Each structure stands twice: as structure tokens, then as C-alpha cells.
Hints:
A hairpin with a 2-residue loop joins strand 4 and strand 5. The radius of gyration is 28 Å and the shape is elongated. Helix 3 runs antiparallel to helix 4, helix 4 packs across helix 6 and helix 8 packs across helix 9. By secondary structure, the protein is an alpha+beta fold. The longest helix is centred in the middle third of the chain and has 48 residues. The chain has 3 domains: 152 residues, Jelly Rolls (Sandwich), CATH 2.60.120.280; 52 residues; 55 residues, Orthogonal Bundle (Arc Repressor Mutant, subunit A). It starts with 22 loop residues before the first strand and ends with a helix. A 5-stranded antiparallel β-sheet has the order 1-8-3-6-9.
Amino acid sequence: MPGQIPVFKLYGEQRAWPTPDLIHCELIAERSRLHGWEIRAHLHGDLLQVLYIQSGRAEVEIDGQRRVLERSAVQLVPALCVHAFRFSEDIQGHVLTLAQPLVEHLGAALEQQPLSRAACYPADDHRGRLDVLFETLAHEYGRHEPGRELMLQSLISALLVWLARQALADERAQALLSDRGRTHLRRFQALVEQHYREHRPLDWYASQLGLSVAHLNSLCRRLAGQSGLQLLHQRLLLEAKRNLVYTSMTIAQVADSLGFSEAAYFSRSFRRWTGVSPKDFRSQR
């Protein structure tokens, strides 16, 4: 047990891997019902799990990141991720657990590696195929007919291909969003350059860009490391420093040139941003 995080083969079991297979397949309800529909935080040292949630509600927490699933989805949980679940009593779905040697063997042929990080993929548009795939997996797993191992590996390979395609589509979507985000950020910076002396509120800039304030702030933090308001203040501060260092304008004139209604307000803002007054800043330079 590293720290306080329990390590299981299968949740709640202290014994070793319970079957001779490198695969374990069960309904979500089978195990979660035994634990009051809650699977507390734990990890698996050398197992990957794929949860197919068909219906019901699931609260998923992986490495401190929490999400609520109320539509069909496939949740991927790689080895060594600390994870916990809380399910509604009407939960419908499957849990597929794969030992790491099998994961590495079957995943070696994939150019896109979908199994190295936790991910959640919406399944609404793929319900038909996924229902058949997991139900066939469960059927084969529970029987011992000729060719069982080959059939199971074939079905899991099909699932891994689906996961790899979802991961690729997700990466492409993220790249597109990132490109759009950079375009929005450049447009925001251009607007700031034009209007920073006017002290317009952030929601004015957001409306000019056709974004919400929250979305604009999110883009600024993700791509520039600061909020939208911080970028606005940063541009004002840059111009104030230039004027204090390279011109002979009085502090009142600098404040007026930057659109401040009062020199005292400018001085308070400058001190809040830099920790020193405009007068001290000028004398230090």
C-alpha cells in the first residue's frame, strides 16, 4: 500500500488474479452492488480497465479529476491511476480488465497508442457496435468453447482499434480548438492594443470576439498563462513604465495619457501591480 491508496487486482479482493486468463469481464453492477454502489479510491499496479457505461449515472474520479457521466460513454483507466467511482443503482454497463502483458501485446500493432492515459469517450453515436462488442465479450468470457482465447483477443483488438480512433479524433479536435484559441487570443491582443487606454471592461472585449467572459479567460490562461484582465493590466503597466522611464511627463500627465481619471488612482493601481509607487519606480530607473 503506497501511502493510503489501496492496491488491488480486482477491487475488494486480496487474492491474486482470479482466473487463468489475462482478461476479466463483468457487469458494473456485479461488483459495485456489493460495495453500496461506491468503489473507493484505489489503483491497479499492472492492469488496465475499460468501463462501458450504457445507461445510468456514474461519478468518476481519476487522479483528482472528477466528472459526472449521465450518457453512454467509455472510460479508460490505465495502470497506476488512482481512481474511484460512484454509480446509481440503475447503472447498466460492463467492466473489462486487462493484464498489462496482454495490453502491450495487442497494442503493439497500433500506430496511435490509446492506452497510456486516462480518457473518456462519448458513446452515443456508437451504441449499436459497442453493445454487440461488449455483450459478445461477456458471452465468450463466460463460456469455454473452442477458439475462446482467439475470439477474446480478436474482440479486444477491435475494441482497442475503436479506442485508438477515438483518441486520434480527440487529438484532432483539440488541435483545431487550439488553433481557434490562438486566433481568438491574437484578436484579443489586437483589440487591447487599440483600446487599452479606454479602460473597457473585459466583457466588452469578449462580446467583440463573440465569446463569453469565462471562455475568453480560459483561453488567456491556457495560451498566455494569465487571465484576460491581467493581460489588460499588463499592457497598461508596460506603457506606464515606458512613459516614466523614457519621457519627462509628470505622473499626472502619464495618468491622463493612459486614461486614468485621477493621478492618485493611477498611482494606487501602479503600486498594486508592481509593489512600488510611480515616483519610486522612476527614481530607481
